[in-house]
Amino acid sequence: MTGAAAEPQAVRPRDDIALMAGYHSPQLDVAVRLNTNESPLPPPAAFTEAVSAAASTVAWNRYPDRQAVELRSKIAARHGVAPEQVFAANGSNEVLQCLLLAYGGPGRAAAVFEPTYALHAHLARVTGTVVAEGERGDDFTLDPQAAAALIADARPAVTFLCSPNNPSGTVEPPSAVASLLDAAAATGGVLCVDEAYAEFSPHSALDLIDDLMPLAVTRTYSKTWAMAGARLGYLIGPAWLVAELEKVALPYHLDALKQAVGVAALAFVDDMEARVSAIVAERNRLTDRLGGLPVDVWSSGANFVLIRPRHRDGAEVWRQLVDRSILVRDCSSWPRLEGCLRVTVGTRSENDSFLAALEEILA
Fold first, then answer.
1. pTM
2. What domains does the chain contain, in order, with CATH numbers?
3. 3-state SS string for the chain
4. What is the pLDDT of residues 173-200, one digit of tens each?
5. Over the stretch 213-252, which tens digit does the pLDDT of each residue have?
C-alpha cells in the first residue's frame, strides 16, 4: 500500500444475513438468573470426579474419534436404538444446523409453528432455507389439520415441531405428532421433533422412530443433565438420515473431552431423574403460586413457565425485576407473545425471591 492510509472497506455479507439479527439471550450480573432454562441444580459431585478422571485419559495430541463410537453407543443403549441411529454434536443447536445443511438450503423450505423456538427459523434463514410459518391457537396448542394443510401447501423439506414447546411449555399429544409425521412423509419431507425438555414431559416421539419413517428427535444434555456448560446434544432418527448429517458436520467437530463427559453423565441416570422430579415439583409449586397473582399462566411440561402480567406492560415488569436483581426472559416483543415473560424454574429460594419481587411490582 502506498500513500496515505486507506479507509478500511467493509466486506458485504450475504444480503439476507445483513438484515438478520443474531440469536442471543441477555447475560446480566444478577443474583437470581431465571432466563435461559438451565438446571438450577448441578450434577452430583461424583460426576465431577468422573469428568476429572476422564480428562486424565484424553490423548490431547491426537484427534478425537470422528465417529464418537462410544458416546453414540451409550446414547443408543439408553434409548433402545442402534448407534447408527444417533448423531451427536455441540449442543442440539448444532444438530439442528446440520439437519438444515443436509436437507434445507436455497429452493427448499422449513416449516415452523409460531410462537415457538426462534432458532428453528433463524437457522433456516442462515442456511438459505425459506421459512413457512404456521400458527398455534390462542392457547398455543397446535391444530393438526391446519398444520398438515400447511405442510401439504408449502411442501417443506424440514418441519420443526417443538414439544414441549418453547416458550409456551405446551406438550403435543402423540396423535398430533403422528399426524404431522404422516403429512411430512407424504410430501417427501422430514419431521424434526425438538425434545430439549422431554424428560420434564409425559410424552416423547421416540416411540415413533423407525428406519422407514422420516422422523428425527433431538435432545440436549443442557437441561435435564444439568450440563449447559458442556454444549452437547444429539439426534435420534433413521440410519439413512444420520448418514447424511455426518456428511455436513465439520471434521472432528466433537472433541475428545466432550465425548468422554457425555459418556460419564450416562452413568448418573438415577441422579438425573431425581433432579428432574425435584424440578417438576418446584414447577408445580411455582405455577400454583403464580395462579394467585394477577397474571395469565400457561400450563407447562418443561422446566419453565410462561406468564403475562394483566394490566401491566411486560417489558416494564421485566425491567423492574432486573432492578431487583432478578432476570427472566422478556418475550414481550416476540410474535404472538405481547406482554409475556418466560420464567425458568429455579431453586425454591430463587423462585421465592422471584415471586416476592413480582408480588411487589404488581401490587
1. 0.93
2. 15-43+270-362 (3.90.1150.10), 61-267 (3.40.640.10)
3. CCCCCCCCCCCCCCHHHHCCCCCCCCCCCCCEEECCCCCCCCCCHHHHHHHHHHHCCCCCCCCCCCCCHHHHHHHHHHHCCCHHHEEEECHHHHHHHHHHHHHCCCCCEEEEEECCCHHHHHHHHHCCCEEEEEECCCCCCCCHHHHHHHHHHHCCCEEEEECCCCCCCCCCCHHHHHHHHHHHHHCCCEEEEECCCHHHCCCCHHHHCCCCCCEEEEEECCCCCCCCCCCCEEEECCHHHHHHHHHHCCCCCCCHHHHHHHHHHCCCHHHHHHHHHHHHHHHHHHHHHHCCCCEEECCCCCCEEEEEECCCCHHHHHHHHHHCCEEEEECCCCCCCCCCEEEECCCHHHHHHHHHHHHHHHC
4. 999 999 999 999 999 999 999 999 999 9
5. 999 999 999 999 999 999 999 999 999 999 999 999 999 9
